[in-house]
From TrEMBL:
Molecular function in Gene Ontology: DNA binding
Gene3D superfamilies: lambda repressor-like DNA-binding domains
UniProt xrefs under PROSITE patterns: HTH_CROC1
Family matches, as InterPro entries: Cro/C1-type_HTH, Lambda_DNA-bd_dom_sf
Transcription in keyword set: no
Keywords: Plasmid
Species this protein is from: Acinetobacter soli
Organism domain of life: Bacteria
Protein's name in the database: HTH cro/C1-type domain-containing protein
HTH cro/C1-type domain boundaries: 51-80
Keyword Isomerase: no
Lineage, opening ranks: Bacteria, Pseudomonadati, Pseudomonadota, Gammaproteobacteria, Moraxellales
């Protein structure tokens, strides 16, 4: 790598940092004069070029100045150095933090709506006793089926064979009702999820205005 290339890369980095310094100062609502006084304790207006030099990328930002600048602007050092697009120190108040909070709030609301819908639908589901009877009935049929091909048993207990046939039909009807209800619950949950995604995760929806991100040109 030649010296010219190294100097060019250094200049680009300084320009990136300079743009971020200017963005942070504007975000903090400070003029160059005020920033100069607070960071460098200069009061002579003829020395305002220190801030200008930094923002134009003419000077390399040193660690002590970076620390003072971040404290003065109350901003993130990662933003100044171009590592992050978050100028805000407090994550909860940052752009990404607000988006996460917005999505979390919407997700919790969706979960509440799903819980309410599920509770209402479960009221129409068979009681616990119904499932117990369903299980017992299937076990009974299993035992009867063991002797279903025994001609002696069928001849001695024709009423049991007929009742088993009716019971089998009732079990099938019960299972169909349960399957339909379960499918209804599933579709209801899918609808809640799709509504949430349509309202909160649409690619065209801008949750918050994204801060300006400077890149090395």
């Amino acid at each position: 790598m030649t010296k010219e290339t190294t100097d060019l890369d250094k200049l680009k980095v300084n320009q990136l940092i300079g743009k971020n310094c200017e963005s942070a100062r504007n975000w903090a609502g400070l003029t160059r004069k005020t920033a100069m006084q607070r960071i460098f304790q200069y009061k002579d207006e003829n020395q305002l070029n220190r801030i200008t030099e930094l923002e134009n990328g003419q000077k390399t930002l040193t660690a002590p100045v970076l620390l003072k600048l971040c404290k003065t602007y109350n901003c993130s050092a990662d933003f100044i150095l171009g590592i992050s697009n978050e100028v805000e120190l407090n994550y909860a108040a940052s752009h990404n933090g607000l988006i996460v909070e917005s999505i979390t709030s919407a997700a919790l609301e969706m979960a509440d709506n799903m819980s309410i819908s599920l509770s209402k639908m479960l009221k129409h589901m068979p009681k616990y006793e119904g499932e117990v009877l369903h299980t017992c009935a299937k076990n009974l049929l299993k035992e009867i089926d063991v002797h279903a091909h025994d001609l002696a048993f069928k001849g001695s207990h024709p009423a049991i064979i007929d009742a088993a046939g009716e019971l089998r039909k009732a079990i099938i009807e019960f299972e169909i009702v349960i399957a339909k209800m379960a499918r209804c619950v599933e579709l209801n949950m899918i609808q809640h999820i799709e509504n949430y995604e349509r309202q909160n995760l649409s690619p065209s929806k801008d949750l918050l205005t994204k801060p300006q991100v400077n890149e090395i040109g």
